[in-house]
Design goal:
By secondary structure, the chain is of the alpha+beta class. It is built from 10 helices and 10 strands. Among the domains are: about 60 residues, no CATH class; about 120 residues, Band 7 domain (Tetrahydropterin Synthase, Chain A); about 55 residues. It has a 5-stranded antiparallel beta sheet. Strand 1 and strand 2 form a beta hairpin. The chain is elongated. The N terminus and C terminus are likely disordered.
Length: about 375
């Protein structure tokens, strides 16, 4: 019985010892474990280390089981996280005055799919390695290249952009997303330096006013010079413009005269070509008229000859029909009776001559004998 009570007490003590509360492990990663179970908070993922080795598994929000005293589990935020770094020292150039930036806020985010790679490569304190260390080094390096006045006033507005740019560049390959850098308050000046700051500020203000006046005077002088140069330039441009206009007008007049001369020459050429064409057409018309007249005369002569030939043929045909044997005989007798020529012919020939021929066919005589008989 005593052994059972002692064993129960030992188990209770072991379980109570293994149960721990939620705490921050030097950054955004928090730990929650209570014996055999542990919790993953909302907007976090869980990662566990067994005997120092990372378990390649992510746990979603909720309760999960684990081995106590062997496995350590942690919450890794996957939403944007804002880390504050206080009292960041900043040494200015040309002085040994220690400057302190009260607070610098860095907003970053760890992608969920890169959590295991980051933990395996850099461990649970990855934000200290890649953000805090870089932040302190970059601030000291930038401040060492500026004076106290530049850090405190003149270039203080650029400090956020400088730190942001350096953190983004240095975390390009770490998969940590730097979203924003904020320096809400100016650098804290030491008391001994702050006492003379008002006097230096007044002196600097007077110097700034004097430099401003000098710059305004220079600007006014440059403005007058620019105005005079502009006036001279305008006059030169006006003269060049007038000269260009005169040259353009002269060129236009010359071009117009040349165009007019070309047009007149072209008109003369066209008129000459038209006259030559008209003369050629008239000559062709006269030649064609002469040829046509000759052809008409030829055809008229041919027609007249044909007509005369037809008339002679018709007359010959009419004479042929008119000169019958009876008519010829009658004409011969009439001619004989009228002339009564003396003929000395033999008796037989006379008798033959006076032989009546009425009702007989007399052979036609030749035209030569007829002409001789008529004579």
């Amino acid at each position: 019985m005593v052994w059972r009570v002692s064993l129960g007490k030992l188990l209770f003590v072991a379980t109570f010892t293994a149960c721990t509360a939620s705490y921050s492990d030097g950054g955004a990663i928090s730990k929650w474990s209570c014996g055999f179970v542990w919790q993953v908070k909302a907007r976090h993922v869980g990662a566990c280390f067994t005997q120092g080795a990372l378990v390649r598994k992510l746990y979603q929000p909720g309760w999960h089981a684990k081995m106590p005293l062997v496995t350590g589990c942690y919450n890794v935020p996957i939403q944007p996280v804002i880390e504050e770094y206080r009292n960041v020292e900043c040494g200015a150039k040309g002085t040994h005055v220690p400057l302190v930036i009260p607070v610098i806020r860095v907003k970053y985010q760890v992608p969920e799919h890169k959590v295991l790679d980051i933990l395996e490569r850099d461990g649970r304190s990855f934000e200290d390695r890649h953000i805090e260390d870089h932040l302190y080094n970059d601030v000291n390096r930038k401040c060492s290249s500026m004076t106290v006045d530049e850090v405190h006033t003149e270039k203080f507005a650029e400090l956020e952009d400088i730190i942001m740019h350096d953190l983004v560049v240095k975390n390009t390959n770490t998969s940590i997303l730097i979203l924003d850098v904020n320096v809400p308050r100016k650098v804290t000046l030491p008391e001994e330096y702050a006492r003379g700051y008002a006097t230096r500020a007044q002196t600097r203000t007077a110097i700034d006013i004097r430099q401003k006046q000098i710059l305004e005077a220079k600007a006014e002088a440059e403005k007058n010079v620019i105005k005079a140069e502009s006036t001279n330039r305008i006059d030169i441009l006006s003269a060049e413009k007038n000269a260009s206009l005169v040259a353009i007008q002269a060129n236009a007049t010359r071009v117009k005269d040349l165009a007019d001369a070309r047009n007149k020459a072209r008109i003369r050429n066209v008129d000459a070509e038209a006259e030559l064409y008209r003369a050629k057409k008239i000559a062709d018309a006269k030649r064609f008229a002469t040829i046509a007249q000759a052809q008409a005369d030829k055809e008229s002569a041919i027609l007249q000859a044909d007509a005369e030939l037809i008339i002679r043929k018709k007359k010959a045909e009419g004479n042929k029909d008119y000169l019958t044997p009876e008519l010829l005989e009658l004409e011969r007798i009439g001619a004989w009776a009228t002339q009564k020529p003396a003929m000395f012919l033999p008796s037989e020939a006379a008798l033959q001559f006076w032989e009546p021929t009425f009702g007989k066919t007399i052979a036609p005589k030749s035209p030569i004998m007829s002409s001789a008989a008529a004579a």
